Amino acid sequence: MRLGVDVGGTFTDLLLHDEKGRRTFQAKTPSTPEDQSIGVVEGVKLICEKAGISPADIDLILHGTTVATNAVLEGKGSRVGLLVTEGFEYTLHLAKAWTPGPLFGWINMDKPDPLASLADTRGIPERMNARGEVVRELDMAAATALIDDLCSSGIEALTISLMHSYANAAHERQLRDIVAQRFPDIPVSLSSEILPEFREYDRAITTVMNDYVRPIMKRYLSRIEDRLADNGVTARLHIVRSDGGLMSAAAASERPVHTVLSGPAGGVTSTMMLSRRSGFPKLLAFDMGGTSTDVAVIIDGEATISRSTEVGMFPAKVPTLDVRSVGAGGGSIADVSELTGSLRVGPRSAGARPGPVSYGRGGTEPAVSDANVVLGYLPPVLLGGEMKLDVEGARKAVANVGQQIGLSPEDAAKGIIDIANEVMLGALRVITVQRGLDPREFGLVAFGGAGPLHGNAMAELLGCYPVLVPPNPGVLCALGFLEADFRNEFVQTYIRSTVGLDPAEVWSRFAELEAKAQTWLTEQEVEEADASITYSLDLRYEQQGFEVAVPVSAADVRSKGALTQTLADFHDIHERLYGVRFTVPVELVAMRVVARGATEPVEESFAEAASTDVKAAIIETRPGYFNGAWQDTVHYDRNKLGVGSRVEGPAIIRQYDTTTVLLPAHYAEIDAHGNILIWPVSKGN
């Protein structure tokens, strides 16, 4: 019994998979922003009740959390102390001299305060050079005095980030030992362990961010484990990493910076699985929830792994799935700008409490979900009848906005949805058109609570078909957690020209990284049969500012073969990515080892009762607003649509965790995997 738990801004989604019975159970419960663990435990109770099992029957809980992300975005992290090499106290303030906007961006930029203040920063007398050689010995007496002063000032965590510690971490370890002896209760992070790579600002800010959220994450995971235990749950808890992998709760407590994009990773992982199973090699992941929308590109069943991301205004150099997010979701609030008198949607969100007006929890401002209710796209009841919507309240709220700009309630609602679609379309354009990809060559996987509501409209705007709505779209991120592998990355910076470089010097350094990877797999209790290790080299043309990861074979690593094939692969990859190759020397930057532990795929047996007779699946006929007029629109029960069923638009397909809108001049078919495939009639048979 594996349970995936995805905490969103509006709902907490849960998906329970019974491997023996090949069945899945799903549940949605309102999120509790004041303490996410409350909503999680309520969801666990609900899903156990639905599945008819005891909480003790659950074997494994896989949890995606936004605790780390929210702490950074809201500026509510811990007070962090920072030890740097003397003379580099302003590293976080200088950053990268980057400003948003082309002209006078620095004038308009509201630069955030660093995550560790200058008052909590101390310069330590010491210095290493880039080759790891000691230029200035560590002054132990001065360091001890500075540590006493800083750690006695009330800091909650301490970061140690010294110059060139990626090449030689001896001084950082010595400082950690001093802190451990004198202030054992203060958690300490070393940049040489969190990010053993060159580029001082990236290394410092990533390690500081780890400490900024570390005490908060530790408290949260402790609370959630205690609450689960109090309710009879004995399962192990694992946390989803930003790169879609898994880590133990203990590891997440120590390195929470690896969870800053934990939530969206599950949906991308599921989309990769859908690509491989459904036979569509090119897909766009479109995850629309209550607060935000996340999009990603899948090519040949794989998503791009980025080596860095941004959390608000701060970079975090950790492996992440390449996901773009925009502040548009079902809970995005619509209002009229006092300055321009125009309609605008988001990024303000109604959240979980009070939520959209139609939820009947005290919300007064209309949201995107309310607009869907007004147009007849959302039925009066959700979650299989568990949640009744305030249709009249939603109409009044939308009408109030429409009145301000001279529109009927229907046209105001349509305007709200159109604006939200354009915001989301912008994110899809960024990951396709701006990267030289033609969206018309891709299908669109619509998921999240609101994704299937808008998926057909997004595909119509972009020209990407089919729209693929999986069997459990509202809880697809939670499903992705169940299918995620254990994953961790180990890296060593080693900057050398490859001209005249002895290959044995390169390959021999993989041994230490491989040993770390094997140790980590053992700590995560990964079975030997499920464990695998891959290798890569970061290479660049000399004088380039950024590098390219080039996979290398285990055979080359173990045989200490020549670099000829690796260099040829680098030229090919560089040309594929950037359209050009050069004849200048190639430089080695770093070696990477990725450890993986495979998990069992989620296999579900479909009910044989569903037939291809779509009439048997009709729930009711209700008015829906399409093409500027009200039309009789048939509502179908998705659970009664068997493989091969075909539904003509306009139509509404309802299920427990979401609602799918099928536009006019489109049709939907159920494929062999239980997915809804939406096509324009012009492409049909």
TrEMBL record:
<dbReference type="Pfam" id="PF01968">
    <property type="entry name" value="Hydantoinase_A"/>
</dbReference>
<dbReference type="InterPro" id="IPR045079">
    <property type="entry name" value="Oxoprolinase-like"/>
</dbReference>
<feature type="domain" description="Hydantoinase A/oxoprolinase">
    <location>
        <begin position="203"/>
        <end position="489"/>
    </location>
</feature>
<dbReference type="Pfam" id="PF05378">
    <property type="entry name" value="Hydant_A_N"/>
</dbReference>
<protein>
    <submittedName>
        <fullName>N-methylhydantoinase A</fullName>
    </submittedName>
</protein>
<dbReference type="GO" id="GO:0005829">
    <property type="term" value="C:cytosol"/>
</dbReference>
<dbReference type="InterPro" id="IPR008040">
    <property type="entry name" value="Hydant_A_N"/>
</dbReference>
<dbReference type="Pfam" id="PF19278">
    <property type="entry name" value="Hydant_A_C"/>
</dbReference>
<dbReference type="InterPro" id="IPR043129">
    <property type="entry name" value="ATPase_NBD"/>
</dbReference>
<dbReference type="GO" id="GO:0006749">
    <property type="term" value="P:glutathione metabolic process"/>
</dbReference>
<feature type="domain" description="Acetophenone carboxylase-like C-terminal">
    <location>
        <begin position="507"/>
        <end position="673"/>
    </location>
</feature>
<dbReference type="GO" id="GO:0017168">
    <property type="term" value="F:5-oxoprolinase (ATP-hydrolyzing) activity"/>
</dbReference>
<dbReference type="InterPro" id="IPR002821">
    <property type="entry name" value="Hydantoinase_A"/>
</dbReference>
<dbReference type="InterPro" id="IPR049517">
    <property type="entry name" value="ACX-like_C"/>
</dbReference>
<feature type="domain" description="Hydantoinase/oxoprolinase N-terminal">
    <location>
        <begin position="2"/>
        <end position="180"/>
    </location>
</feature>
